[in-house]
């Protein structure tokens, strides 16, 4: 009695159909690509990066669309899993990027402290000059109104008063159309005012909503610490989560343009490999900047621009459409993602970083 045979999608070897796994390579027999298959054991197997990574990395970089096409066709053990590859490369990138971001945070904090010191010195100098005007003879308003009748010395002192008023006006900020005078808040903080007094001075009301009160708290926190670097660090720390959220959105955009070219999970596979390529490029640029202090900006710009052509050739190979149609669609996908999705994500990241730093 003859036994029926089936062919393994991964190693193309034939084996008896009743076997649940291929006896040659170990891939599950009749494995259907679903979301559960795509993510199954990805986290638990993350650190088991073996020779498949090196076997997958070169095709990832020089053959756009090859890896996702192979994975969709059933060869899922020959190359590194797309989600696993994305996670590994992205973590390497963020590890290296942390050295660059630390310098940026320190530079921002130093710049803010220097600006504050210069502002305080300028303000104290102006106030000292303004105190030399005889207050019994002139009030601030009358002096400013009768500037033409004053002596040359008094006119210079009047200019000092006017400078003080301009500094006070320029140092005020607003939140939801409510003015906040930074100089007054700084003075109250130095005097040891309570948070309740500071919030009242800033304009926070008892009936304000949670978001408004949270904003006031963060502004007061900034006034006390004068640390913009912590906000920047919170923003940078939110990038990994944001990129992981942007990835399925990118896959959804692909689904819109290639609606008849497979299920959503197929577009997700392409997105994982494409984002892994992007992080590989970012990693190489970070390494170049760490090694070469004066790394030419034009090389970075050219490298970033080349990612569009990678996407173009990737969708051409993966979806099997012509050059012209693939170029038009890849251009539209890039424009939609970069002009609408990415700016909105950056705005949300900035808001979240400020509200929860």
TrEMBL record:
One Pfam family recorded for the sequence: DUF3667
Keywords (A to Z) from UniProt: Membrane, Transmembrane, Transmembrane helix
Transmembrane segments: 79-100, 239-258, 270-292, 298-319, 331-356
Coiled coil: none
InterPro entries: DUF3667 (IPR022134)
The name this protein goes by in its record: DUF3667 domain-containing protein
């Amino acid at each position: 009695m003859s036994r029926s045979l089936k062919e393994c999608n991964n190693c193309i070897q034939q084996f008896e159909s009743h076997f649940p796994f291929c006896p040659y390579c170990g891939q599950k027999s009749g494995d259907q690509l679903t979301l559960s298959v795509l993510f199954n054991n990805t986290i638990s197997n993350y650190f088991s990066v073996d020779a498949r990574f090196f076997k997958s990395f070169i095709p990832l970089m020089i053959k756009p669309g090859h890896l996702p096409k192979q994975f969709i066709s059933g060869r899922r053990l020959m190359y590194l899993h797309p989600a696993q590859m994305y996670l590994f490369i992205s973590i390497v990138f963020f590890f290296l990027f942390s050295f660059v971001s630390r310098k940026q945070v320190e530079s921002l904090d130093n710049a803010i402290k220097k600006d504050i010191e210069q502002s305080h010195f300028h303000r104290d100098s102006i106030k000292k000059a303004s105190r030399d005007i005889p207050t019994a003879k002139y009030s601030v308003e009358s002096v400013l109104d009768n500037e033409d009748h004053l002596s040359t010395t008094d006119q210079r002192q009047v200019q000092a008063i006017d400078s003080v008023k301009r500094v006070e006006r320029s140092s005020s900020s607003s939140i939801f159309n409510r003015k906040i005078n930074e100089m007054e808040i700084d003075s109250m903080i130095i005097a040891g005012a309570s948070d309740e007094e500071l919030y009242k001075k800033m304009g926070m009301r008892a009936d304000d909503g949670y978001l408004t009160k949270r904003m006031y708290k963060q502004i007061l926190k900034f006034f006390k610490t004068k640390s913009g670097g912590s906000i920047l660090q919170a923003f940078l720390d939110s990038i990994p989560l944001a990129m992981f959220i942007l990835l399925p959105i990118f896959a959804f955009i692909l689904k819109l343009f290639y609606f008849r070219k497979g299920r959503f999970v197929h577009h997700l596979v392409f997105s994982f490999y494409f984002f892994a390529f992007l992080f590989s490029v970012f990693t190489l640029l970070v390494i170049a900047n760490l090694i070469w202090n004066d790394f030419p900006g034009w090389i970075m710009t050219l490298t970033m621009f080349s990612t569009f052509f990678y996407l173009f050739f990737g969708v051409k190979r993966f979806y099997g459409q012509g050059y012209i149609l693939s170029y038009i669609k890849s251009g539209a996908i890039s424009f939609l993602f970069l002009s609408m999705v990415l700016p909105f994500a950056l705005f949300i990241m900035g808001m979240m970083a400020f509200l929860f730093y």
